[in-house]
Structure formats: structure tokens, C-alpha cells
Specification:
60s Ribosomal Protein L30, Chain: A; binds magnesium ion; about 325 residues; Phosphoribosyl-aminoimidazole Synthetase, Chain A, domain 2; binds adenosine-5'-diphosphate; 7-stranded mixed β-sheet; 2 domains; alpha+beta
Amino acid sequence: MSEFELIQRYFARNQPTSSAVTLGIGDDAAILQLPVGELLVVSVDTMVAGTHFLADTPAELIAQRALGAAVSDLAAMAARPLWYTLALTLPDVSESWLEAFAVALAQRSAELGIILVGGDTTRGPLSLTLTVQGSVQPGLALQRKGAQVGDIIAVTGTLGDSRAGLESLLHPQKATMADLDWLRQRFYRPEPRLQLAQQLAPLAHCAIDISDGLMADLGHLLQASQLGAELELTALPLSPALKNFSQDQQRLRDWALSGGEDFELCLTIPAANWAQAQALAASLAIPLTDVGRIIAAPTLCLLDEGQPVPLSQVRQGGYDHFRRIHD
Ligand code: ADP
Ligand code: MG
């Protein structure tokens, strides 16, 4: 199969039409129409086999995971998804792999409201680079900077699930099948919080998506805002499936804090807007949990029922916290 045939067969066909896509796949470049008066929001993500996913991961799961993770960056900016390009490097041309990949990619693209408008196909070790683009009204993008002292630190959904899902793939576990399926879905099929982010944008000061773990990503937000935070460990939202997965509370806490790849959002919201923010989240049936406060001191302090977590436990637990965020 030639490269041309491959692109035609798997990527060019069955693309949805949109008035915003004047010219999609098949020419030297795409021609696109940004919504009038809006700003373009752009992000790129690369996933390499063996580094970001196990090389034998089924093609449809690779597609779902790559697209969900990439679109999560648009959610974190409170942007609306528009279109994306895909640079795909394949070790060989397997028609069954490409078929499964393309079908899952098209399905997930439709669900997330984003259109594939171009790409590049090359031979080499399996990797995918997705450049996602969205739009936002001027002034409504949520950045990492902008937190203010006293803001409520809120997280969407639950934390640590994706790490447990990965753990169950790497090591056999004694969990029920229903719980395992759900946790693995959380790992393989990130659900960008697009709608909630857009609705919360006028109420929140800033946001980041949780790709590296709450500790690390909240750290980025604090650094950008030049502030610190108190984080209440007992408030971290854990799913029923995660609680069933392990009785080791320390381990669950570690996963919730540093497991990563949950692709939930961490936002800071002024207290005056909190009730309204919670009502919006409730109307979308997405948990929105108060996990701490923004403080002036440039440190990230972990609290256990309001008491600072002792340094000894910090070391044993392996948290890299009580750290200075910036000087
Ligand atoms: P050129 O040599 O002009 O860059 P290509 O042969 O690389 O053209 O691509 C032809 C068309 O197919 C372009 O519109 C390109 O965006 C699209 N394309 C190539 N690879 C992919 C892919 N993996 N997914 C989606 N579109 C692709
Ligand atoms: Mg090209």
C-alpha cells in the first residue's frame, strides 16, 4: 500500500464536514476558519511506544488515550476544540492495526467534537504527535497564572484511578472485574472536562489539567501565580473503585497526589463564586471538590485533618512536598 492509499483509506475518508473546515485532508495544507472574534489555542503532544504506552497496547486504546490526553490541554485552557493534525510514525503497515486505530480515532474525535484536518505519515518506531487547536473568547482562557490568596483549590472528578488502572495492567490484582474495567478505562480513555471548564471559566482564576499528578501540576500553577497552597489530604476525592482496589491508605494517597494521567482539572476559584461553581458541576454530574486554599507563603503544605503532615511521614511517604515553589 502506498502512503497515498494509506492516508485515503484510513484517514481521509469519513471525515465529518464542518463549515469551519474550508479544506481538510488531501491537499498540501488545510484551510480553516476560526470563529469570528475568537482566539486560537494550540497545543502539541507526542506519545512514543515503550515510553508513554506499552508497545503491545491495542491500537484503539492508543488512539483513545492520545486524543483524550491532547484534548485535555484545550479543556485546561477553557477552549472549545476545533480541529487537530496527526503525525503518525509506524514501524510497518498493518492493515488490521490501522483499521482499529482509524475507527477508534474517528469515533473519539466525534465524541470530543474535534476534526482531523491533516497530518504526516512516516516509517519508524511507533509514535504519535497530535497538534490540537481550539478557540476561546478573549479574556476567557484559564491560564496557570492568576491565582489569588484565599482562592479555593478545586479538583474535578476523582484522583489516582489512572495509576491504579496502570498498576492492574502491570501486576495481577485481586480486585473485582467491574472495578478493574472502570480503573483501566480511566487510564486508557481520558475524559477531558471540556464543558465544565468552559462553564467555570468566568468564575475561576486559573486552571491546569492534572497530567503529572496533583502535587506536580498544582506546583506549576503556584509557580506561575507566585503563591503557595495548603492541601488537605483527607479531602482528596477517591473513587469507590480505587478505595476497593487497595486497603493501603498511604498508597492510595500517593496515587491521588502523584499518580498522574487522571486528566482531571485543578482550578482556583474565589470563595464568593464557589456555590455557583458547585451548582454548575452538579448540573453536569461531575464532582468538584474543595481540596485546599491558596496562601501567600511560597510553599505547598500538606495537611492531615488541618494539621501539617510531620516531616518524618513526608520522607517515608516519599512526597516531595513542603517544598519551596519559588524564591
Ligand atoms: P505533502 O507531501 O504535501 O506533505 P502528504 O503526502 O504528507 O503531503 O499528505 C497528504 C495529505 O494527507 C495532507 O493533507 C496531509 O495533511 C494528510 N495526511 C498525511 N498523513 C496523515 C495522517 N496520518 N492523518 C491525517 N492526515 C494525514
Ligand atoms: Mg507531508
